[in-house]
Amino acid sequence: MVLVEVSDSPELKSSLICADNLRGVSELSLDFLKDRVKVRASCNGLLCCSSIPDKGVYYVCNPMTREFRLLPRSRERPVTRFYPDGEATLVGLGCNLSVQKFNVVLAGYHRTFGHRPDGTFICMVFDSDTNKWRKFVSFQDDRFTLMNRNQVVFVHGSLHWLTSGCSYILSLDLNCDVWRKISLPDEVIYRAGNRAHLVELDGCLSVIQISEAWMKIWAMKDYESEQWHLEDRVSLRCIRGMVPGIFPISQTREYVFLATYKQVLVYQRKSRVWKEMYSVKNSSPLPLWFSAHAFRTSIFLCN
């Protein structure tokens, strides 16, 4: 499914729309949190949300069971000169269903008051087993655009982000707190005029490459040796006018969900048919892909 946060204006309360290829479109409520929140990350049925009025307050919830956990405040919140209100540069959620455990990651560049970031990358990791945050520091020279930060994928016990310029993938191993750089397919890196988007495909890292006429789906077949395989090549001729603003959100072997400025589309890979799932009828201030997340239901108990 695809979960989209839609608002008429920044001042009004957002509504959550869930687009499911089998069940259609439904509205999802997070009113049980008793707070005005923004969805920051999604993983295996859980959502990580940040409080809008109370900066630095985070929740992890299961909207299907309406259970949630209010995370303890971390003593140190990573900030940058671009985000002086305490919002982390990166927010990630990793949820391991087999052991019923989740981690929340807040990471950002250290900034001494009145100075530019000094290259020190501070990472805070919340562990649901201990109900505590742990901190570690590294030195990264990586930059993330607004949408790169929103695209985080949890596979192989690690969180993955695509760096700006689509030069490589940066992963964080949650078992040992180690950052790793993962190479992209050569065609994605060196071919001009392409956009790359990081998604998951049946537990594997996947990159969807979009050019003016084609959508190519790559999947990582061997995680350790970083071997990529071209899974599919899809013509975009039928939706040519939407291509400049299209953004892949989630996929399975059967479907690919994509958001545009005002619509959620689904591409059926076997029949090669495009279908509109949802369309905004009003003048939403932000494109739908700005606040869209992959979502699947689970019975994970997060309280």
UniProtKB/TrEMBL annotation:
* Source organism of this protein record: Populus trichocarpa (Western balsam poplar)
Q: What is this protein called?
A: F-box associated beta-propeller type 1 domain-containing protein
Q: Which domain of life is it from?
A: Eukaryota
Query: Known Pfam families for this protein?
Result: FBA_1 (PF07734)
The top of its lineage is: Eukaryota, Viridiplantae, Streptophyta, Embryophyta, Tracheophyta
Q: Which residues form the F-box associated beta-propeller type domain?
A: 34-278
